[in-house]
Design goal:
By secondary structure, this protein is α/β, with parallel strands linked by helices. The protein contains 12 helices and 18 strands.
Length: 416
């Protein structure tokens, strides 16, 4: 039987970062896929550069960004000030909706402002994410944007989600901020600016991989079982004894492989069908991405790579949220996407010249009171046996890529 000090499961950002920042070299990284990167992969086709979805980096710690860029071999990295909008009633409203209600028709603006004021004056219960939206923003803002958009994003009943399901990433605003923004627009969101390499998000993956021993990465080797008592992991090729195991696999999958008793219903998620679409000429120039709360449109967000790259052909990513059990017919959905893009006047006589699609499953995990409690309980049981579950899916949380890097770095330093 092989033995290793640290076994890492998953060669996405979190797994690669753990390996890159370990102080010792006695590690092995196994990955089920045929290439590294997890969801942070880039597709280059017919002159278009696409990711599996829009992976934009919002660094709060300059030293983390500097470490990565230094390992990119001269790759040009664009720093972009975000231009994000909401398609509402045939017009584009600045994001976030709740701070820009003054851009709505007068009657709707007054409706939103009225409901916002009285919601703050007489707050309601906040036992779920849905109740939080109504309590803090009032009925009009909730029903015009916050509820329909987030239902499309998560593909679930928002009453199931925990109040803090989106954590620091949810753009809160009180009445004073909303009023102030009418005269002095200000974007204090975590991603007001973002960086993006000209070669796609995979350049960050390559930067991490440059600090990992190539011979320590084993591809097409999925984890099949974890024997916590013996501290042994089994794959189709071998058994591996470990001192520590670090996993970025979906948490529910890890606890199943480790044989820990739990209720599978406590962990739910959606999947996202992503279309990358390349057209023969330029389209709208004003946006980096646009949100679509209208339930009659199949997608919840469209991003414009060409406006980031300043390219002369329209290059889109289009995201469609689906329940995790839903069947996927990508060809039929692509036809509907194109019709809805035409209805939204994003496509206007354009010719589709290249396309790609991928299903991200899981995409967004559903953060509920049950999942929070079970994740805490099961994580403690795993860590008692030297097993650590990290990253967005390992942590069963909503976080940024930088959060994953910081978490992996801290764990690597702890493990030595």
């Amino acid at each position: 039987m092989e033995s290793v000090r640290t076994l890492i499961v998953g060669a996405g950002v979190s797994g690669l970062a753990t390996a890159a920042w370990l102080k010792h070299s006695d590690y092995l990284l196994i990955e089920a896929d045929r290439e590294i990167g997890g969801y942070c992969k880039t597709v280059v086709r017919d002159g278009f550069v696409w990711d599996y979805s829009g992976h934009f980096f919002h660094f709060q710690r300059p030293e983390v960004e500097r470490w990565l860029v230094e390992r990119m071999g001269g790759q040009r990295v664009r720093t972009v000030r975000k231009r994000a909008f909401i398609s509402y009633g045939g017009r584009l409203v600045d994001f976030p909706f709740q701070k820009n209600i003054h851009q709505l028709p007068t009657a709707e603006f007054l409706e939103c402002l009225h409901d916002l004021y009285f919601a703050r004056a007489e707050p309601g219960p906040e036992r779920s994410f849905q109740e939080m939206l109504y309590s803090r923003f009032g009925r009009a803002i909730a029903e015009k944007f916050l509820v329909p958009y987030n239902e499309k994003l998560n593909a679930c009943d928002l009453a199931r989600l925990d109040v803090g399901a989106m954590g620091r990433f949810f753009p809160h605003a009180d009445v004073a901020e909303v009023i102030r923004n009418m005269r002095r627009p200000e974007d204090k969101s975590y991603n007001a600016t973002f960086t993006y390499p000209e070669g796609g998000a995979v350049q960050y993956v390559k930067a991490l991989a440059s600090a990992v021993r190539p011979e320590a990465i084993s591809l097409e080797e999925p984890l099949l079982e974890v024997d916590l008592g013996r501290k042994v992991a089994r794959t189709p090729r071998r058994e591996i004894r470990f001192q520590h195991l670090v996993s970025s696999a979906p948490f529910n999958r890890l606890v199943q492989l480790a044989g820990l008793p739990h209720d599978a219903a406590d962990f739910s998620w959606n999947k996202v069908l992503v279309f990358n679409l390349g057209f023969d000429r330029k389209g709208p120039r004003e946006a980096h991405w646009i949100y679509y709360p209208d339930r009659s449109r199949c997608f919840y967000r469209v991003g414009f790579y060409d406006n980031i790259f300043e390219a002369d052909r329209m290059s889109l990513y289009v995201e469609v949220g689906l329940p995790h059990e839903a069947a996927v017919d990508a060809e039929a959905m692509r036809s509907r996407v194109l019709r809805d893009l035409e209805a939204e006047r994003v496509v206007d006589g354009h010719r589709l010249v290249a396309h790609h699609s991928v299903v991200m499953d899981p995409a967004y995990v559903h953060i509920t009171k049950e999942s929070i409690a079970e994740h805490r309980r099961l994580s403690a049981a795993l860590e008692a046996q030297g097993v650590f579950s990290i990253g967005r899916y390992g942590g069963w949380t909503y976080c940024s890529i930088e959060d994953n890097l910081i978490q992996a770095k801290a764990l690597a330093e702890r493990l030595g």
